[in-house]
Amino acid sequence: MSITFTTHALNGTDGTHAGGVALRLCAGDTILAEGVTNVGGRLQCEIALDAVPRDGLILLHIDTEPYWRGRGVPRTGPQIVSGVTIRLDLPRTSGHHHVPVMLSPNAFSAWWSA
After folding, report:
1. What is the CATH number of the domain that holds 9?
2. What whole-number distance in Å separates Cα of residue 44 and Cα of residue 79?
3. Full domain range(s) for residue 91
4. Total domain count for the chain?
């Protein structure tokens, strides 16, 4: 059995999809899944149910710096968020879990969706 985890990254500065953003799902130091969002800003991962820790705590790491640099936002400019880590309490049941994220050079927003 497995968990389907999806995300949809959006560029909060212009309302477009944030394609090419690297993400990792981790349990402690163990990488459960990783990938890069497609041109539509989406990524889907399958996680083996037995890989999810008993407490359900996983970390979603989003590497935003290369994305913003590729759009001409200098690291020394208005960007203060070079990466985002979100702690998730993932239920230990099979199914689909979706976490969309809205990114900007100096902020982010995320929510849990079905």
Report:
1. 2.60.40.180
2. 27
3. 2-110
4. 1
Among 105, 100, 94, 97, which Cα is nearest to 69's? 105
> For the segment 43-85, what is each residue's pLDDT rounded down to a tens digit?
999 999 999 998 989 999 999 999 998 998 877 766 668 899 9
Q: Is the pLDDT of residue 42 over 90?
A: yes
Q: Token pair of 7, please?
A: 């995300």
Of 4, 5, 2, the closest CA to residue 100 belongs to 5
| Sheet containing 84-89: order of strands | 30-36, 22-27, 57-63, 84-89
Residue 66 DSSP SS3: helix
What helix, strand, coil percent values describe the chain, rounded to 5?
5, 50, 45
pTM of this structure: 0.90
Residue 47's DSSP bridge partners are: 3
Mean pLDDT of 82-108: 90
